[in-house]
Structures are given as C-alpha cells and as structure tokens.
Amino acid sequence: MSYQPKSDFLQVMTERGFVAGCTDLEGLDDALTSGTVPAYIGYDATAKSLHVGHLLNVMMLRWLQKTGHKPITLMGGGTTKVGDPSFRSDERPLLGPEQIADNIAGMQGVFAKYLDYGDGATDALMLDNAEWLDGLNYLGFLRDIGRHFSVNRMLSFESVRSRIDREQSLSFLEFNYMILQAYDFLELNRRYDCLLQMGGSDQWGNIVNGIDLSRRVAETEIFGLTTPLLTTSDGRKMGKSAGGAIWLNADMLSPYEFWQFWRNTTDADVGRFAKLFTELPVAECERMGALEGAEINEAKVILADEVTALCHGRAAAEAARATAHEVFEKGGVGDDLPTLAVTGAEAADGISVVQLIVRSGLAKSGKEAKRLIAEGGARMDDAAVTDPGLMVRTDALPMKLSAGRKRHALVTLEE
C-alpha cells in the first residue's frame, strides 16, 4: 500500500494485515484524525455463537475502540429473517423470531469480552436492525429506497452472478437482502452519525450499495473498509476443524478445544495469525513467525494463550495450557479436557466404544467412528482400539478417549 495512514486506527489495520479494500482510504483517514468515528459491523443471528470466522472483524472493532473511536455491533434481528445470499449455493433456512432472539442472546456475551459498552463517546453500542426494519411500510420503502437501486447493477455483483451462472435458484426474498443492508447503513448514519461500515471482502458489494444509497438520499460522505477472506497457508478456509466450527462460546466449544485449535496452527501461519488475533507487538509477532523447529512450537503456545485469554480469560488459557501439558507431555488425563458423563445404568451392561466416540464429539457419526478405529486413530487411555464392537463398562471409567494425537475427551461416570 503506497498511501501511509496518519490515523492510529488505519496504521494498526495496515501494519497488522487487516485491510483488503477501502472505498476512500485518504478520506477515511482524514475523518479518523478529525474526531471520533462511529463504525459498525453487522452480524446476522444464524447461530447461538459467533465462530472463528467472525473473529477477524471482532478484532477490528476492538482496535477501533482502543484507538479512540466508537464501535457499533449491529445484530441482524431483521435481516436474519431474509438471509444473506452472498456466495451461497442455496437459500438459508428461515428462522422464527424466538430462535433469532435466542441466537442474539448467545452472541452478545462474546462481544462483551472484546468491547466496552456504555454511554461514553467511545463506548460500544449494541443495536438490532429489527428496530427499523420490522415496521417498514412496503410501498413506502419501495418508493423512497427501492427506486435508488438498479436491478442491472445488482445482478452484476459476484455474490449474485455466481449463483445465477450456476443456475441455482435465488429467491426474491434473498434478492432484497442487499437493499436492506444498504438501508441499515443509511439508518445508522441518520441515527448515530455512523461513518464507516466494515466487513469481510465478500461484503464489498453490499457496503458499496449502502454508501451509494446514503449519498443519494442523505447526501452524506461515508466509507467502507474490508478485510481479506482468510485461509490457512495450505489453502483451507479459516475456522474449520475436524470436529466442526470453532465456536467462541464456551458452552459450544470448551476453552481447551479452542486453545488446542490455535496450538495446532501450521508453522507458516503463526506470525500472520499473531498479528491478526492477538495484541502482541508487531515486531514480536514477526519474531514468532520467523522461528523454526522446537521454537516455533513455543510460539504456537504463546499464540494459543493470547487468543484464548482474549476470548475466555487468562485463567482459562492457563488451565488449557496445563491440560495440554498433562495430556501430551506426561501422557496423563488433564482436568480441562472436554468431558462426556455417562450414567451408571447405561454403562452397567456396557456402552459401545463407537457410541462414546460419537457422543464425546470425536466423530460426527458411527460410520466415521468405525473408520477412525479401522485406520488405527482411536485410543482408550493411550491404548489402540482395534475392535469397533468393544463394549465399555463401569469399571473402565473414567478414561481418556482419543482421536489421533491431538483430539481428546474424558469419559466419566455421572455422579
């Protein structure tokens, strides 16, 4: 990037690798150096927790606040009823109001760990776009807002065109999503003087729509800033593991499993992920990324500690590291392992090892568990499991159940 930002926020964003695109970098930089800038990121309530795929943008909001500006977390209580079609091959399942409300409640706890909410100039705001979307008059909305959108232009956006090119259905409901998101930006500018929308680079078209709408309707100058779509060095989508999504809520993924995900970062990603997901100085992140051999493993522990401390607290990070030390270096059973408690009644006559592997989350199905056993990847208390028909009885509990070398669970007898 040839332009050198003056504002603290954009300096941090560029130095740490957050910036993929900006609608007007110099204009945004001037706004950031002229006063407090309110900025938002929207989150549709499609699950009860955010996951690692959201973490890059959550860190953007955290840095925004730390550099003297005002973050807005916009919950999609309204837009979730429609569903974002961006780069999807099919329509999202439609959720009811109760499920959307439950999901928003589950997501709010994560934001409180990264941001300070309140009434101050730089305190974060938690808003819900249902506040202005649920009561819209359809004909009035079409007349006042819809007339500013060209269908030809909407069809040109990659997120829509790719779906049509593959001859996959795009419902009229979904087609409205980009208009509603653009309207969110207009309303946030009107109500809260919001000047900036941030998001992943897949949201570029939706962000530009909001900027154009605000210029046409309110004649205001607002900005968009996007982050790169993150993949690991071997090309995999960031945030996926063998066990599924890496959730940020502790009740959906234990702090130990979260810590272990970061500990398993590939060597080539350590420095980059440290810049993006921790607050360690840039020079320290680069030093960690340049290490090799055993030293890079020490850097991975630091990375896991720092990311976990932000998400779950320093005590949880230390407990996860202690468990990993116990499990991997001493061959023991750590106190913080994910735990499956079985009742005495179900274990009295024996419970199949395949069922235990599935119920503990080490496999998604019985078929996958049997394949794990056949390939020699399943272990009980570090001894290989060779018989998929093995029945585990009360006297074998508690025990450590393992899938490969890096994924473990503790099976206990319910008290």
- State the secondary-structure class: alpha/beta
Q: C-alpha Rg, in Å?
A: 24 Å
How much β-strand is present in the residues?
5-15%
- Average pLDDT works out at 86
Number of strands: 15
Give the number of helices: 19
Overall body shape? globular
Order of strands in the sheet with the most strands?
Answer: 1-6-5-2-3-4
Uncertain regions: pLDDT < 50 for 5+ in a row? none
- Cα-to-Cα separation, first versus last residue: 60 Å
Largest sheet: 6 strands, mixed
Percent helix: 40-55%
Secondary structure layout plus pairing:
Elements: H1 8-16, E1 21-22, H2 25-34, E2 38-43, H3 52-66, E3 70-75, H4 97-114, E4 125-128, H5 130-133, H6 138-144, H7 151-156, H8 158-165, H9 172-175, H10 177-192, E5 196-200, H11 204-218, E6 223-227, E7 240-241, E8 244-245, H12 255-263, H13 270-277, H14 282-289, H15 294-312, H16 314-329, E9 339-342, H17 344-348, E10 351-352, H18 353-359, H19 366-374, E11 378-380, E12 383-384, E13 391-392, E14 399-403, E15 407-413
Parallel strand pairs: 2-3, 2-5, 3-4, 5-6, 9-15
Antiparallel strand pairs: 1-6, 7-8, 10-13, 11-12, 11-14, 14-15
Helix pairs in contact: 10-11, 12-15, 12-16, 13-14, 13-15, 15-16, 18-19
